[in-house]
Design goal:
By secondary structure, the protein is α/β, with parallel strands linked by helices. It has helices at 59-65, 77-80, 83-94, 111-123, 135-150, 154-157, 222-241, 247-269, 274-291, 298-310, 314-330, 334-343, 351-361, 378-385, 389-393, 400-410, and strands at residues 3-5, 11-13, 48-51, 71-76, 100-105, 128-133, 159-160, 170-174, 186-191, 196-201, 209-212. The protein binds nicotinamide-adenine-dinucleotide (NAD) and fe (ii) ion.
Length: 411
């Protein structure tokens, strides 16, 4: 895969845009983008995945394996005061490991908090990082471990392959089943001064271990289980639809879709159902094992800027847009979308209908207006979205007017 970076830090893969929006923002969109079944691809997985009941008990031995004696646990405020942190603390203390805790990561972490954590890592003599939480703490931890090792500020690491040396070794422990950040080469940050979300993209920041323990997710409230689960579904759906997919990512994406179809309702309705929680943790991880090499689609192209402009929580934004995006795309590639609805266990309906029905069952009925998004804001959001290569990966070309239509469907 070729890569080039943009001055604005929006990460793009794959060279020239396939279509460009005209001045009116309109493009010829009735045809699918061409697919190349022989497109060269490279699939790498530097992260070892440890999965299963009470996997967190293995944390001390995993840290020893990567030579970490004095880790910093990076998490958010709510988790720092939760039974999840207590469990991690007891595992580390029982093994006699001296550790620090940074519990100040906010949702949609800023470049500023990353620099703060990198300073603590350096000044505290930490030799490794444990990223504990949802995508926000895991991304902050990934970025800070690169900042601490390189001495660079987070903003200097933004873009494609800007991480100049190996970061401090890291174990990622997801406590939501959604982002899959534990296995991705991305750290998504909020650049407050620019008012945009930016990405550090580098294979180097992929954690050494992803530790998937379903018992750490049972405290996730229903609305977060539902919305983060829809994020996982979106990664799988958009990856499977991506014109940059490959035979390996396709298999992973379809399996992730089937796991979401099987387990997301149960995990939301029955928080202590460990089998459902494990199914969703696997789904979110597997979805990103697919998407890590393919990029995503229009739902993410729009949900990411909405997180920066109106603080629409990532999974909520994606859930609002995914059904509409499937409807937009499936007319140009009905077979591919049919395979997805079959994988969801909903062969009798279109993927757009299956996604909308799932959102309804999960009680995900938020609209853009609930977050103060106004029609006048669309142009700004769409201008940011059009810079993302998630637009280029989408199977149906889309111009500014098409993205505005998708936003209007979520209004
Ligand atoms: N790096 C990547 O590849 C990637 C992919 C997708 C999204 N993201 C980013 O991830 C972030 C979103 O992550 P997220 O959706 O996981 O949300 P999050 O990490 O922001 O957490 C959301 C809320 O859930 C709470 N929470 C987390 N685990 C819990 C648990 N077990 N019990 C109770 N409460 C819990 C947190 O305290 C927080 O209040 C966004 O910044 C998004 O851009 C990154
Ligand atoms: Fe996402």
């Amino acid at each position: 895969m070729t890569a080039n970076d943009q001055d604005d830090g929006v990460v793009r893969l794959g060279g020239k845009p396939v279509v460009a929006a005209g001045e009116s923002g309109s493009v010829e969109t009735r045809e699918a983008r061409p697919r190349d079944a022989l497109r060269p691809a490279r699939y790498v997985l530097p992260t070892a995945i440890v999965y299963g009941s009470d996997a967190v008990g293995q944390l001390p031995s995993l840290l020893a394996e990567i030579g970490v004696e004095h880790p910093l646990v990076v998490t958010d405020r709510a988790l720092a005061a939760s039974s999840v942190m207590l469990r991690v603390a007891s595992v580390l203390s029982s093994a006699g490991i001296r550790y620090g805790v940074f519990g100040g990561v906010q949702p949609d972490p800023t470049t500023g908090v990353v620099d703060e954590i990198a300073g603590i890592l350096r000044n505290g003599g930490h030799d490794g990082v444990v990223g504990l939480g949802g995508g926000s703490p895991m991304d902050a931890a990934k970025a800070a471990s690169a900042g601490a090792a390189s001495g660079l500020a987070a903003r200097d690491l933004v873009g494609q392959d800007k991480v100049p040396c190996d970061p401090l070794p890291m174990v990622a422990i997801p406590t939501t089943a959604g982002t899959g950040s534990e296995v991705t080469r991305f750290a998504v940050l909020n650049d407050e001064s620019a008012g945009t979300k930016v990405s550090i993209a580098s294979l180097r920041i992929m954690p050494r271990f992803a530790l998937l323990d379903p018992s750490l997710t049972t405290g996730l409230p229903a609305h977060l289980t539902a919305s983060t689960g829809m994020d996982a579904l979106a990664h799988a759906v958009e990856s499977y639809g991506s014109v940059w997919n490959n035979p390996i990512s396709e298999g992973l994406a379809l399996h992730a879709i089937s796991l979401v179809g099987e387990y997301l309702r149960a995990a939301t309705e029955h928080p202590d159902d460990l089998v459902a929680r494990a199914g969703m943790l696997a789904a979110s991880c597997i979805a990103e094992l697919a998407a890590n090499t393919t990029r995503l689609g229009l739902a993410h192209a729009l949900a990411v800027p909405l997180g920066a402009t109106h603080h629409v929580p990532h999974g909520v934004g994606v859930a609002m847009l995914l059904g509409a995006m499937c409807g937009y795309n499936e007319v140009v590639d009905p077979l591919r979308y049919r395979r997805m609805s079959e994988a969801m266990g909903k062969a009798e309906v279109s993927m757009a209908e299956a996604v909308k029905a799932l959102c309804k069952d999960l009680g995900l009925n938020a609209r853009l207006r609930d977050f103060g998004v106004d029609k006048q804001d669309y142009r700004r959001v769409v201008a940011m979205a059009m810079k993302s290569d998630n637009v280029l990966a989408n199977p149906r070309p889309a111009g500014a007017e098409d993205l505005i239509d998708l936003l209007a469907q979520a209004q």
